[in-house]
Amino acid sequence: MVHILRQYGYSFIFLAVFAENVGLPVPSYPVMLVAAALAATLHLRIPLIFIVCMLAALGGDGIWYKLGRSRGRPILRRLCSLSLSPDSCVHRTERYFQRYGVKSLLVAKFVPGLNTVAPPLAGMLKVAPMSFILVDIAGISLWAGSAIAVGRAFRDEVEWAIEWLAAIGRAGIPILAVLLLGWLLYKWVERWRFYRLLERSRITAPELKARMDRGDTVVIVDLRSDLGYHGDGAKVAGAIWIPPEDFEKRYTEIPRGGPVVMYCT
């Protein structure tokens, strides 16, 4: 990283920050931190690092905000499908945004999974463009400012860490690769087991409709969040709506003694 920063400087910082904020798996926080810590050595200026990070992050967030405003919920689902925990991504993000509103953008970049999803969600909820820009700029300032501040405060430790990694050399790369692959494998197995459980107890929409047309008594529970329930126009007649966060308190409302179908989007 240090070699690339020395060669490309602000351009590399901009690309790293922009890439992360458009959803690519690029960890730009360490890039900002190292650039700030080694600014003198790399002939970089702290104010320019901050400005470059602001422009890159705002550009990436602006793209997703505009897509969310024009395309709506499908964009949110598409983004969450790329995450390692897609099954809870939409619900977790909507619940967080519902609780804190546009102020969520102030801390979105510090919350895993919320960074890329918050801007299109703000667009989907028709947050005013100027409100989005102002709050997003404040959030980016906190995020980039914290990376730069940490880099400056611990520049000696950062230099030591870089020297240590250089001393390890190529031997450290396989170790890091094995740890990363192990974690990814764990997440994949976790998802595979979850989907196997779903397959054993799943019913398709046509099968459910056929049962309802035959007059079978089926209790339907709508588990969408408040934003999902009121944002989507489609609702199943007679379904009991229980937001996921209220399920522990309201599950007794579900009639017993017959088949129960739960769904969300």
Write the layout of secondary structure elements.
Layout (H helix, E strand, L loop, with lengths): L1 H7 L1 H12 L6 H10 L1 H4 L3 H26 L1 H9 L4 H15 L13 H11 L4 H25 L1 H14 L3 H29 L4 H9 L5 E4 L3 H6 L8 E2 L5 H4 L9 E4 L2
Parallel strand pairs: 1-2, 1-3
Helix pairs in contact: 2-3, 2-5, 3-9, 5-8, 5-9, 6-7, 6-8
Low-pLDDT segments, ≥5 res: none
H/E order of the elements?
Answer: HHHHHHHHHHHHEHEHE
Instruction: Return Rg in Å.
Output: 23 Å
- Principal-axes geometry comes out as elongated
Annotation field: number of helices: 14
Proportion of residues in helical segments: 55-70%
Amino- and carboxy-terminal Cα gap:
41 Å
Percent strand: under 5%
How many strands, what sense, and barrel or not for the largest sheet? 3 strands, parallel
What class would the helix/strand composition place it in?
Answer: mainly alpha
Question: What count of structural domains?
Answer: 2
Overall pLDDT score: 79
Strand order of the largest sheet: 2-1-3
